[in-house]
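Per reviewer request, we include the raw input and output of the structure prediction for the construct analysed in the revised manuscript.
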Amino acid sequence: MSTRSNESYGQQRLTWVDRWGRWLSARAIRRVVPARSGLRVIELGCGYHAFHLVSLYDRLAEGVAVDFALAPELRHRERLTLKEGAIEEVLPQLEPGVYDVVLLISVLEHLQHPGAVLADIHRLLKEGGKVLVNVPTWRGKFFLEFSAFRLGLSPQPEMDDHKMYYSKRDLWPLLVQAGFRPSRLHLHYHKFGLNLFATAIK
């Protein structure tokens, strides 16, 4: 995700802080995504290199990468479909009710209408499919902004584009309003409480 309409996260060089955070997210994702081949997976706001989607490549029948700009080398991966553009513009183009997993990693906090995007994700998932959501917490707000604005260890435009920080009380109702049942939600804090990770099953 990026604040500039022609640039995606990771298109510029990432700091060690960003690479470490990305690695922690990838580890959480691989624990939750079914360990089998033949999955249809979408990553919304996937970043320039679609890092998380590529890390699941061995499990994919089809992976859909969505962001403003995507690296040319991704076009050589036969099981990937690339969709360049804003998430809200791309979602209506995707086939409903057929995807096993949707990844929304460090994206929801950038969206003007997060509830509408989550409702669209619910529409895209097959029965039993799941969305994985990672968002920064209110506790993380101080550390993220200090890292970006004072230490220069995270991209300032990313922090300036944050429209929301989340607790369980903030994210839970958004997921329920989007159509996910409370009994099929699991939310937990990770990255030392700086992030909130949610799994919602349709």
